[in-house]
Write a structure and sequence with these properties.
The chain is of the alpha+beta class. Helix content is 45%, strand content 21%. Magnesium ion binds next to helix 9.
């Protein structure tokens, strides 16, 4: 059946074909060679770009789409009419949704009489794909780090031994100052060994350690005092008294607080206030990290925890993804809480059992 006839059926008479087209979980519309809309399904009525079918049927696409939308779409449709070949693209629309858009030629005989535009929302599928890729990459990096840490232990022992041997030689030749260099070398080797051991320990499944939240926060804040990004940032720290210890590795919590604090400072280049507020609520230890920057725009809130999502040219977009993964891996969580002004990231932790 020619699309013109089908569309009249859909628009006016209903029936199983119309119901089927309306039931499709994709938005679609059809235009004729003059770019007049002859079919517009129910899914195309929803969302930020949706419009009621009754208003668009029979009208020129120029009157239906927003001016910039028409400018981008019309040449594509004309190309499909002229070439008879379909066109596909994935594009982002208002509200940061991702659509896979297909423009398909519809023929009567050999002539392309209509073009069908098909819009599939692939936001969730793409996010899932990105998460899988990122998790794979992180797992691989973790295995790599543990492998390297393991292999480094042997040459380190060799270096320490060689330093001792060198010292003995030098001492025999009456060069007692060699002791200083030996101590320096051995001290640095010991530092590397501690680092390697902590990496290997972190990889080993173990009983969950606990952390005094105020102490971890305090360590991070001392670290930030001299950081240039914090030169114009006032830091306020309010920790409830008698806050229970939290069930998390101290280093993991420090890494999370550091990532959140650096994000906050970056969001306030002209200066502002960073507040860290620790409290006990709903059986959890809660740490809020608040800033007085612009906050996260509603359209971006669902994306900031996706690996590799960043709005900064020099960012990797991994800070929040790793922070959330670290917390969830230890029974905690991280979420963004909208507020009237500024951003609030809430860290939730399991309290350690007392006694
Ligand atoms: N406090 C905040 N205020 C406003 N936007 C924020 C804030 N924290 C994070 N964001 C937004 O979330 C995005 C992702 O943050 P994330 O920490 O994952 O990556 P990044 O900071 O861009 O890069 P990286 O942490 O790897 O250096 C940021 O690019 C920014 O757009
Ligand atoms: Mg970051």
């Amino acid at each position: 059946m020619p699309v013109g006839a089908a569309s009249r059926g859909v628009a006016e008479t209903g029936g199983p074909l119309a119901a089927t087209i309306d039931a499709l979980p994709v938005g679609l519309y059809v235009v004729d060679r003059r770019l007049r809309v002859v079919l517009w399904n129910r899914a195309r009525e929803r969302g930020t770009l949706g419009q009621p079918r009754e208003r668009v049927l029979g009208r020129h696409l120029r009157e239906v789409l927003a001016p910039e939308g028409f400018r981008a779409t019309a040449p594509l449709l004309r190309r499909v009419f002229a070439s008879g070949r379909p066109h596909e693209e994935t594009r982002e629309t208002v509200g940061a949704r991702l659509y896979h858009v297909r423009r398909l030629p519809v023929r009567e005989g050999r002539r392309v009489t209509h073009v069908l535009s098909w819009f599939e929302d692939v936001t969730e599928r793409r996010a899932l794909e990105m998460r899988v890729i990122a998790t794979d990459r992180l797992t691989f990096m973790g295995q790599l780090v543990v492998g390297v840490a393991h292999e480094i232990a042997n040459p380190l022992a060799g270096i320490a031994g060689a330093a001792q041997a060198l010292f003995s030689l030098a001492a025999r030749e009456g060069r007692p100052e060699a002791r200083e260099f030996r101590d320096l070398l051995q001290g640095e080797v010991a530092r590397c060994e501690r680092l390697v051991r902590s990496l290997l320990d972190a990889a080993r499944p173990s009983t969950m350690p606990t952390t005094v939240v105020a102490e971890a926060v305090g360590t991070v804040l001392r670290l930030l005092e001299r950081h240039p990004a914090f030169a114009r940032v006032k830091v306020v720290c309010r920790m409830e008294r008698d806050l229970p210890r939290a069930r998390i590795e101290p280093d993991a919590l420090k890494q999370v607080v550091l990532a959140l604090a650096v994000n906050a400072a970056r969001a306030m280049p002209a200066g502002g206030t960073l507040t860290l507020r620790g409290a006990s609520a709903g059986g959890r230890v809660v740490l809020d990290v608040l800033d007085t920057g612009p906050g996260v725009a509603p359209a971006l809130r669902s994306r900031i925890f996706q690996p590799y999502f960043t709005t900064h040219p020099e960012g990797t977009g991994l800070g929040l993804a790793i922070a959330r993964a670290l917390l969830r891996g230890q029974g905690g969580d991280l979420e963004y809480r909208p507020r009237a002004r500024g951003a609030c990231f809430r860290v939730r932790l399991r309290p350690a059992r007392r006694g």
